[in-house]
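Possible regression after last week's pipeline update?

I re-ran a chain I had predicted before the update to compare outputs. Posting the input and the new output here so someone can diff against the archived version. Not blocking, just want to make sure nothing changed silently.
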Amino acid sequence: MSNGSFEHPMDDAFSVPDDIEPLVEEIHEFIESDVEPIEQEYSAYLGSPLNYLDEDGRLRPEVEAARAEVRQRSAEEGYYALHLPEEVGGGGLSQREHFYIIEEIFRYGTGHGTGLTKSMLAWTEGPSPMLIHLDDDQREEWLQPLIEGRKSACIGITEPTAGSDITGIKTYAEKDGDEWVINGHKRYITNAPFADTAQILAKTDQGDGIDGMAMFLVDTDNPGFEPGHINQNIMMDGITSDIHLDDCRVSDDQLVGEVGQGLQLALTWINWRRVNRAGMCVGMGRYLLERMLEHANEREAFGSPIGDNQAVQWPIVETATELRAVRAFSTQLLSEFDEMSTLERLDQPSEARRTMSMLKYYPENQLFEWSDRAVQVLGGQGLMRSGGVERVFRVARNLRIPAGATEIQKQTIARTLGLGGSR
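New output (post-update):
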């Protein structure tokens, strides 16, 4: 497993605060003791998409089983839901503290293209801050199995005609006695083929526009719920597909919060993904820097290491410098966010929205630059799917669109600065 174990002169620059260092060390030890053996056990299915995807582009069941095993072991150790408050069974970490955990995990790159290491923490498939708005009975039925890693989820927001403009969704839920009947079509839904539960955003007959939007909990074995074909995207993840909802009936107790809160609830999920981008990008940036330094010192051309050449030195120098800057920028903004808000809050203040958008778009843009440089420095090896760097390059390009494209983040920042109309 290619990881962050390569030591170089930059190691001291990435120190971890004393309050979170013991937990980061635990995470590192868990990866070595629990995750690496699972990767070795399933090594025949890892690496190239030719190994971990079937003929339809779907993740092979063996790899999904490996992901689930990592998720459950992590949950047993209390790592999987570190981002949630202790009151619901989470670890109670602040966003700043959680940054260092995410960074450590993504120092391992992307886990042979399948995200086994990433499966240690809750992502799209796990418990989001949105679910804190469930009542006690709902938490026991819907949230607890996710926190414990026994079940996985997906969230249905995006549709064929609605992406950045969430208000343009057409999925519709009509009240029928003490039930709701949902019809619609969701697109690009991560983990839809494997999820046990789905969170579905829909418009309702209880109000117009935003006032009628609601979030529903849906069991994926519901007769009206059907995953569509695999979306074979740039990530080659094998876990993204459409969702078809055809007269899908759910009860009143499967409503999250209240009708009229659907958009705000969806944004709590989206903001969770935005805030976590910083740790992901810095972690993968460190992985790239390590790979560049290794290659520059080991690869020889014309009788000497290629790292002796300025043409190779400069992109590494630029990456090392920018990586420190982005890390400092991210931890400072996360500290500021912790002081002003929480992710489950439905009425985020203007400054918090600006901070979350900055935390998404800027680290993502930098990661894309770093990954492009890394591919160039590694040359032919950088283009190989088995090498890891090429995979990070594709992940970096992908990140700039989901959970709000770069342009949407800049628009949010502009508006919170008093530009462009509504604040």
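Follow-up from reviewer: compared with the archived run. The longest strand covers residues 179-190. Marking as no regression found.
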